[in-house]
Write a structure and sequence with these properties.
The protein is of the alpha+beta class and 219 residues long. Helices cover 16% and strands 24% of the residues. It binds FE2/S2 (inorganic) cluster.
């Protein structure tokens, strides 16, 4: 197993909350307890924690079909949450849900609705199917549908907004970057990753991301 350190989204969220409410230092012991509660040991990389890799099948992350491969007929222009499912070194099937940042979101738009800067080569363009990281690039919350503005995404934490038809570019709020797109293709009836996320997911730097992907090859 490989030890791997990265920015912890839970710690980042706690730092943000503490800063926002001015509690750091003001409530002494309680802050210390809160901070200690948020510290987790370095991640031990294993097959359930490596990021989505080439050949991973996208499976439902919630609902009645949880754990089953996502079919095009299951998808709509609303969020469908997914995990990448791959294999470990022994060939055993592994859902990579051990790392919360591996959560994905998948959509199916009417053909022709996908626009730049969506990477069309990384989408199943003829069916309007596209997949992204489901974790906000601001402070790591899960993004979801925006009831007030259909076909856009809203992060419930600080109202970050993204456009999933246009490469999940930021259209509102504080996120500094678009949600990274996952390259996919159809393989039979399944939706399969053709590579890793095109950019690092939340909380990790480019150099760390490259190291992580290198280490993932040996897991
Ligand atoms: S975590 Fe702040 S906008 Fe998403």
């Amino acid at each position: 197993m490989t030890k791997y350190k990265r920015a912890d989204p839970e710690i980042s969220r706690r730092k943000f909350i503490n800063a926002a409410f001015g509690t750091a230092g003001a409530v002494g012991g309680l802050s210390l307890i809160t901070a200690l509660a948020g510290i987790r040991p370095p991640i031990r990389l294993n097959a359930s924690k490596v990021p989505p890799l080439t050949g991973d099948v996208l499976v439902h992350a919630e609902g009645d079909k949880s754990g089953q491969p996502i079919k095009p007929a299951d998808l709509t222009n609303k969020v469908t949450r997914a995990w990448p499912q791959g294999k470990d070194k022994k060939g055993n099937t592994v859902v990579r849900s051990g790392e919360p940042n591996n959560l994905l979101i998948v959509f199916k738009f009417p053909p022709g609705e996908l626009q730049p800067p969506t990477d069309m080569q990384a989408a199943i363009a003829d069916q309007g199917i596209v997949a992204y990281s489901g974790i906000c690039m601001h402070l790591g919350c899960q993004v979801g549908d925006n009831p007030a503005k259909p076909e856009t995404l809203l992060c419930p934490c600080h109202s970050g907004a993204y456009d999933p038809r246009a490469g999940c570019k930021v259209i509102g709020g504080p996120p500094p970057k678009p949600l990274p797109q996952l390259p996919i293709k159809m393989e039979g009836e399944n939706i399969v990753a053709t590579g890793p996320l095109k950019e690092p997911y939340f909380g990790i730097q480019e150099s760390e991301w490259k190291t992580l992907l290198e280490e993932a090859k040996d897991i």
